[in-house]
């Protein structure tokens, strides 16, 4: 059902030792949306992504996914609820081939779909098909990002978390990655929560967005609203060619 809340983060505080990295964060993602989280280096964006998976664990607040409180669930059980991620830095397996990396993403529950799911990834990213037997570590940055997303898709997620998919990539590759995310959302209804430094690209892609500053969400709105917001423009969009 479109419009239903899929992920609901309420009052989440996360600490590293005594240092508080998230300061009571409220974020929600509805089914069928692409939601972007933007913010400067060190704002706590990756911490929020990782807190959804329970590592680090939220010290206060609740995280609800598809109506289930997952705040205290072990990470592997959270993954079994069909949340998948492409983490910051991509984290593909460098010595494994493209095919083996994709295999690692497939969950045992879905093995009957394996062939079909691999084909879907190759349709989305034909470059990966051409490099099926190449080791992950020898792929270009853009190809590694495609593989990281492809591996996450092999888990047949209801929610895809992406941490800085465009980082360090040339504009043409960034466009391909963002087009692929839009395509997944449009054709498969996949719900996406993405963290980006590329505020312009992310807000253009997103249904809604949030701005994070020092562990707090300071603004939210539709992608269009945030793109037009003078504070957002001054802090995150000025100096670019937009
Ligand atoms: N493992 C850790 N131990 C201690 N402090 C950490 C750890 N990871 C992150 N932090 C701190 O938590 C804060 C938030 O970091 P986080 O990585 O979530 O930011 P970010 O918004 O993802 O930044 P970037 O855009 O640079 O990726 C920072 O002050 C960071 O130094
Ligand atoms: Mg980060």
Brief rundown of the structure:
It is built from ten helices and ten strands. With 242 residues, it is α/β, with parallel strands linked by helices.
Overview of the structural elements:
- The chain is an alpha/beta fold and 242 residues long.
- Helix content is 37%, strand content 27%.
- The protein has 10 helices and 10 strands.
- It has helices at 45-52, 75-80, 98-105, 114-124, 126-130, 141-153, 171-188, 199-205, 223-228, 230-237; strands at 5-16, 19-30, 34-39, 60-65, 68-69, 83-86, 159-163, 191-196, 208-213, 216-222.
- The strands form 2 sheets. Strands 6-7-8-3-9-10 form a 6-stranded mixed beta sheet, sandwiched between helices.
- The protein starts with a strand and ends in a 5-residue tail after the last helix.
- The model has no long low-confidence stretch (mean pLDDT 94).
- Adenosine-5'-triphosphate (ATP) binds next to strand 2 and helix 1.
Bound molecules: adenosine-5'-triphosphate, magnesium ion
Shape: globular
Strand order, sheet with most strands = 6-7-8-3-9-10
Q: Sketch the topology as an H/E string, one letter per element.
A: EEEHEEHEHHHHEHEHEEHH
Q: Mean pLDDT, rounded to whole units?
A: 94
Measured by DSSP, the beta-strand proportion falls in: 25-35%
Alpha-carbon Rg, integer: 17 Å
* Tally of DSSP helical segments: 10
Q: What structural class do the secondary elements suggest?
A: alpha/beta
Using DSSP, what is the number of strands? Answer: 10
Largest sheet: 6 strands, mixed
Distance between the termini: 35 Å
Please give the share of residues in helix. 25-40%
The low-pLDDT segments are none
């Amino acid at each position: 059902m479109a419009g239903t809340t899929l992920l609901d983060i309420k009052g989440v505080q996360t600490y590293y030792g005594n240092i508080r990295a998230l300061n009571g964060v409220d974020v929600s993602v509805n089914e069928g949306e692409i939601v972007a989280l933007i913010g400067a280096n060190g704002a706590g964006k990756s911490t929020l992504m990782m807190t959804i998976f329970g590592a680090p664990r939220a010290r206060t607040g609740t995280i609800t996914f598809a109506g289930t409180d997952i705040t205290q669930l072990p990470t592997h059980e959270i993954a079994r609820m069909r949340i998948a991620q492409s983490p910051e830095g991509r984290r593909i397996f460098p010595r494994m081939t493209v095919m083996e990396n994709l295999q690692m993403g497939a969950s045992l529950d879905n093995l009957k779909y394996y062939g079909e799911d691999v084909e879907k990834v190759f349709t989305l990213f034909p470059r990966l098909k051409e490099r099926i037997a190449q080791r992950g570590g020898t792929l270009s940055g853009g190809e590694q990002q495609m593989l990281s997303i492809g591996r996450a898709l092999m888990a047949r997620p209801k929610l895809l978390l992406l941490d800085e998919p465009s980082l360090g990539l040339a504009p043409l590759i960034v466009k391909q990655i963002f087009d692929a995310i839009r395509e997944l959302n449009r054709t498969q209804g996949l719900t996406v929560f993405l963290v980006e430094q590329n505020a312009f690209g992310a807000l253009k892609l997103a249904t809604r967005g949030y701005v994070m500053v020092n562990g707090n969400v300071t603004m939210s709105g539709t992608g269009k609203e945030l793109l037009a917001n003078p504070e957002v423009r001054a802090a995150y969009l000025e100096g670019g060619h937009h």
